């Protein structure tokens, strides 16, 4: 272990357990003064959980946090802020309806005769922002400014309030190149001032541009911490997506390589401005097409547009030569499409309704309200899928929100299987669920495929994709950049495709 | 089938018990309370009176239940009652037939509901704000129709709806019981009930499952408008005139209260029309009980306030999490309500 | 122009245009007499609406104010009729009760995490019920002090009178503007309306602010009750039914966002004046009926809700394409 004094922040053995899931498992993390430390990992890897444990938003279940060599245990973000740990989130956590100056000084406005001295406050605000080369009207509402400027204001506030550690959670997600450059100038300056900066992002170029060290988390565990300069890009992607390159050789894949039949579903220059660039896609019956790419590459957007959750504004969709109507989820369902969304809680489950009702919901919606599925038929369907998919629930009338994540996921799958779909889109079907359920869902995908269903599976688990996909599309920056077929489908090739796509980007 | 019956019994038990206790307490203060007599082809008695007086709130509660189940609220029903009463009175005094009058009035109510529904579902305005518009303007519109006066009528057919009787029961009772039964059957014998609950619990997930969320929302507000129209007709027929200022005044609040007493959460989802109707009867029993037992009627509102506070405490997320914590401590099986992000 | 000022600008423009139309038809309406009466007649509503502005700015709603005004009136009337205490003491008592009443509602809203709508609905029933319990009759107030207070007025050039209560309303608005824009509490109110979760992250004391907001609304409703009793010289438990709706309408027409976080106390004054102007016009006209007030206010309400919805959509779109 390094000497205490060189690290401004050091966390060891951090555990965080949620009911039904272990979000962090003995994670170590350290941050030196004047260091930019990138924290990487896919969704659900535990990045935000770790940050929340550091900032007191969550209480950790185990481990130590040392700040300047002293044990700290912040109970909430305010306390962490006072201790010296400030955070800036992607969704700027300032109030858009207040002025810039009010945002900077909320709760500590300078006062004269008991009243807020707006003139002094605005003057101080201008002085504070001038350190960041920001010369703006501080009396204007925050919402009048671009996200980039809002980010800088949030950073100014966080540094002014805390001043030891600055956590930047996806600060560049909605910034353009020019704005990112501006932000990085500021980050470098803060680094020179001796702040420790934790930088979370999914843009690898930015990681290499700004960070000194990289820590990768995966499934709540520490994969490793490396010097940025000594970590090749390919290796980093492998760390994030979970396959060591050395293991790559002799991958026994597609033993009986299914030769997919003729394309049944054809999408031509299908796309939507601001979501995903137009792409072509063919899917045959009984074929699984995998979609790979890093977070933010346009994976979910591809799924949403295929299902009509976001309406395509270009291109055509056909099945067996017939044009499909995919203008809304309802229309897509009528075309025998199904979609298991990534965010189960928000987009998937109807929490207060029973497992049975959640299973029959899509089928009932397609039949229309006037043709109810009889109760005995509902019971039969529910029991059938509870048994077939091994959904662990005390009974089918239990509200679905009380089930564990994996069982909720299986119930959502059951919801779509009950509609007998011909084209099923699964967005991260195995995320955040335990190992047993994981394997069952993969088996299920294979069975469905054998039964002639066309599947699109989005996953950040590359071994999984390789195991069941006959083709894999690789996405980057909201565009389809590569397609791997047959023998080409290996984790190595996917990583290669993602990495080369990144390297191919004009700097 | 017995399972379903048992589920109903469990669901309705608190309301039935509360109603029984209230009726029992009133009967202590007023001995002749349960006495029923049969005169002029009609039952008379305090119980019948409660059923009769409670008709408007009961009708409003039917529509309100469905609206609240979608995570909405309809503040305009009192004003819509006034509009519909005015329309009915204006139409009948203009010499139109009863059938035409009823058709026009009911259409008016449904139209008002359509307006609210479009604001909520299409323009995506918060229900409480969207329905406020009609709540504010509605009485003005009603007065416009009645031209400020209490528009009286003496069409026997229309009056019959307010004070006539059928099968030994007053017409208003027949109407709310019948309509309540129709709506309850409609939502439970078709898939409507489940789809409405799904929309109320998670509108996004429901849309992604192919539920026509917009149509359902609009339909819920239209049903609420229809209920307000029926209540408005009864209220007008009862006093043989349309009083734009006072018809349905504050009844939206009573209707919301009835739904809340009936155990439907203001946060949407699971609903029971029968329970809301029982809630309406509980409110009316308190009103009537206070009158009969000689308490000054002034206490009525204070008791209502006390009931709301009590239900608030029981329904509050804090109290519920305490309850869940208690039951979790008892059961060993862990409830996996929360998920790692 | 800053879109924040658009609703307020629209309000002022509507008021000026409406007033110009009124004057064009009835030149008499351009007199300090009319303006003085406008202030006097709407004094109680204006004072209560200041409290409602704070509540709505914070993202809440207070349905109880009409009932609290009536309660205060009855409370004063009963107290002055049956005891010999000085009205000023009675005023103080009334204000203490109504402020505490508001604070308790705020505490319930915060601690039980229940929607303000239903909590203040219970408050409305309770306050109205208490008024009924005190008396169901309209009780006249004949205390000489009331006569004294009503005799205070400032004669405006042109013969109009700025009465004590009209002036008090203007003072309340001034103080309200000061609190909203020149105190930490004011900033906290806006912060709450901007988003409770974010406000909490930024260190706003949510509980204290919520309780203070509803206490302020209770206090101003009590003050409004005192003004109303001065205005009518009576206390009646059935008075001021639905005043909360008029107040909400004034706040929204005054350009405050009903979902909270954006608006001006000064706008509410214009909202009150617009409502008063419609009534005055109808009185001047003589042939128009009073119900047009409600319909017009409903239409204005609708127009402002649409305007604000459009502004939100516009700013969202701008942000997405930024």
From TrEMBL, chain C:
PANTHER family: ABC TRANSPORTER PERMEASE PROTEIN YPHD-RELATED-RELATED, INNER MEMBRANE ABC TRANSPORTER PERMEASE PROTEIN YJFF. Keywords: Cell membrane, Membrane, Plasmid, Transmembrane, Transmembrane helix. It comes from Shinella oryzae. The chain crosses the membrane at residues 6-26, 38-57, 63-81, 88-111, 117-141, 162-180, 211-236, 248-275, 295-314. It is a multi-pass membrane protein. The keyword Transmembrane helix applies. InterPro entries: ABC_transp_permease (IPR001851). The keyword Cell membrane applies. This is Galactofuranose ABC transporter, permease protein YjfF. Its main location: membrane. It comes from the Bacteria. The gene is yjfF. It is found in: Cell membrane.
């Amino acid at each position: 272990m390094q000497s205490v004094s060189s690290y401004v922040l050091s966390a060891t053995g951090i555990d965080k357990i949620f009911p039904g899931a272990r979000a962090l498992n003995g994670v170590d993390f350290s941050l030196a003064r004047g260091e930019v430390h990138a924290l990487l990992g896919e969704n659900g890897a535990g990045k935000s959980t770790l940050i929340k444990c550091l900032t007191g938003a969550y209480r950790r279940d185990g481990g130590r946090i040392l700040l300047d060599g002293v044990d700290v245990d912040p109970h909430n973000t305010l306390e962490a802020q006072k201790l010296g740990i400030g955070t800036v989130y992607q969704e700027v956590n300032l109030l858009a309806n207040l002025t810039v100056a009010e945002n900077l000084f909320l709760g500590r406005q300078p006062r004269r005769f008991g009243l807020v001295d707006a003139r002094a406050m605005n003057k101080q605000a201008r002085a504070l922002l001038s350190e960041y080369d920001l010369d703006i009207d501080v009396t204007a509402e925050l919402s009048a400014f671009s996200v980039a400027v809002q980010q800088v204001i949030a950073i100014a506030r966080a540094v002014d309030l805390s001043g030891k550690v600055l956590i930047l959670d996806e600060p560049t997600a909605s910034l353009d190149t020019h704005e990112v450059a501006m932000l990085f100038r500021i980050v470098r300056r803060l680094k020179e001032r001796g702040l420790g900066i934790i930088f979370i992002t999914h843009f690898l170029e930015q990681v290499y541009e700004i960070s000194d060290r990289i820590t990768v988390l995966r499934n709540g565990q520490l994969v490793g911490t490396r010097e940025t300069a000594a970590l090749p890009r390919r290796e980093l992607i492998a760390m994030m997506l979970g396959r060591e390159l050395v293991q790559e050789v002799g991958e026994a894949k597609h033993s009986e390589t299914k030769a997919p039949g003729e394309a049944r579903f054809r999408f031509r220059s299908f796309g939507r401005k601001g979501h995903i660039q137009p792409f072509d896609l063919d899917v045959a019956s009984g074929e699984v097409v995998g979609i790979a790419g890093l977070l933010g590459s346009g994976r979910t957007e591809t799924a949403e547009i295929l299902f009509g959750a976001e309406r395509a504004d270009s291109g055509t969709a056909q099945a067996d030569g017939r044009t499909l109507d995919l203008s809304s989820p309802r229309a897509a369902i009528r075309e025998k499409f199904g979609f298991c969304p990534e965010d189960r809680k928000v987009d998937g489950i109807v929490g207060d309704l029973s497992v049975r009702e959640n299973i029959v919901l899509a089928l009932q919606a397609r039949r229309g309200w006037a043709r109810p599925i009889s109760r005995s038929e509902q019971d039969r369907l529910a029991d059938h899928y509870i048994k077939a998919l091994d959904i662990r629930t005390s009974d089918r009338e239990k509200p679905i929100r009380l089930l564990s994540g994996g069982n909720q996921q299986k119930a959502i799958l059951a919801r779509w299987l009950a509609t007998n779909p011909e084209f099923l889109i699964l967005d991260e079907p195995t995320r955040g669920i335990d190992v047993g359920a994981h394997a069952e869902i993969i088996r299920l995908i294979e069975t469905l495929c054998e039964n002639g269903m066309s599947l699109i599976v989005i996953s950040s688990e590359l071994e999984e994709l390789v195991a069941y996909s006959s083709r894999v599309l690789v996405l980057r920056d909201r565009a389809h950049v590569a397609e791997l077929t047959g023998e080409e489908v290996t984790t190595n090739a996917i990583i290669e495709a993602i990495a080369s796509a990144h390297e191919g980007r004009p700097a | 089938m017995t399972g379903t019956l048992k589920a109903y019994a469990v669901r309705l038990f608190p309301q039935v018990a509360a109603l029984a206790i209230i009726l029992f307490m009133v009967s202590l203060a007023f001995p002749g309370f349960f006495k029923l007599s049969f005169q002029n082809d009609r039952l008379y008695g305090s119980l019948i009176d409660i059923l009769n007086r409670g008709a408007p709130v009961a009708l409003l509660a039917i529509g309100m239940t469905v609206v609240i189940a979608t995570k909405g609220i309809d503040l305009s029903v009192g004003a819509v009652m006034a509009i519909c009463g005015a329309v009915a009175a204006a139409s009948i005094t203009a010499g139109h037939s009863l059938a035409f009058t009823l058709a026009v009035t009911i259409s008016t109510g449904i139209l008002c509901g359509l307006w609210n529904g479009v604001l909520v579902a299409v323009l995506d305005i918060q229900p409480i704000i969207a329905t406020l518009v009609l709540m504010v303007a509605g009485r003005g519109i009603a007065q416009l129709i009645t031209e400020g006066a209490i528009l009286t009528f003496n069409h026997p057919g229309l009056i019959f709806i307010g004070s006539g009787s059928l099968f030994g029961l007053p017409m208003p009772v027949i109407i709310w019981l019948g309509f309540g039964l129709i709506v309850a059957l409609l939502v439970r014998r078709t898939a409507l009930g489940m789809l409405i609950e799904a929309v109320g619990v998670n509108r996004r997930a429901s849309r992604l499952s192919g539920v026509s969320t917009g149509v359902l929302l609009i339909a819920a507000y239209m049903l609420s408008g229809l209920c307000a129209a029926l209540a408005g007709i009864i209220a007008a027929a009862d006093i043989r005139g349309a009083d734009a200022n006072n018809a349905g005044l504050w009844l939206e609040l009573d209707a919301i209260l009835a739904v809340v007493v009936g155990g439907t959460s203001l946060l949407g989802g699971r609903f029971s029309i029968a329970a809301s109707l029982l809630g309406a009867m509980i409110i009316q029993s308190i009103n009537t009980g206070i009158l009969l037992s000689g308490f000054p009627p002034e206490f009525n509102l204070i008791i209502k306030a006390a009931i709301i506070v009590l239900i608030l405490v029981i329904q509050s997320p804090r109290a519920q999490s305490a309850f869940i914590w208690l039951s979790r401590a008892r059961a060993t099986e862990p409830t996996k309500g929360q998920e790692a992000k | 122009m800053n879109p924040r000022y658009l609703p307020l600008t629209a309000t002022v423009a509507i008021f000026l245009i409406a007033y110009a139309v009124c004057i064009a038809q009835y030149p008499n309406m351009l007199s300090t007499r009319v303006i003085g009466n406008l202030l006097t007649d709407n004094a109680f509503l204006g004072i209560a609406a200041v409290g409602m502005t704070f509540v709505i700015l914070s993202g809440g709603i207070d349905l109880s104010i009409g009932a609290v005004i009536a309660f205060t009136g009855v409370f004063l009337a009963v107290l002055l009729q049956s005891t010999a205490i000085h009205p000023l003491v009675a005023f103080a008592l009334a204000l203490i009760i109504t402020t505490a009443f508001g604070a308790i509602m705020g505490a319930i809203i915060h601690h039980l995490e229940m929607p303000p709508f239903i909590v203040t609905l219970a408050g409305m029933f309770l306050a109205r019920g208490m008024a009924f319990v005190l008396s169901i009759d309209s009780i006249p107030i004949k205390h000489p002090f009331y006569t004294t207070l009503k005799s205070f007025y400032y004669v405006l050039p042109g013969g109009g009178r700025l009465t004590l209560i009209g002036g008090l309303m203007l003072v309340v608005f001034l103080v309200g503007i000061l609190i909203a824009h020149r105190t930490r509490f004011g900033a906290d109110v806006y912060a709450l309306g901007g988003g409770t979760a974010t406000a909490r992250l930024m260190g706003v004391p949510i509980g204290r602010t919520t309780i203070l907001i509803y206490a302020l609304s209770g206090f101003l409703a009590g003050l409004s009750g005192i003004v109303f009793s001065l205005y009518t010289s009576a206390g009646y438990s059935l008075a001021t039914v639905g005043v909360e709706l008029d107040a909400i309408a004034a706040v929204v027409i005054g350009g405050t966002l009903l979902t909270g976080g954006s608006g001006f106390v000064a706008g509410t004054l214009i909202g009150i004046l617009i409502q008063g102007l419609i009534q005055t016009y109808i009185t001047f006209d003589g042939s128009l009926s009073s119900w047009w007030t409600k319909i017009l206010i409903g239409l204005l309400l609708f127009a402002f809700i649409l305007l604000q919805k459009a502004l939100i959509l516009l700013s969202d779109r701008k942000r997405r394409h930024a």
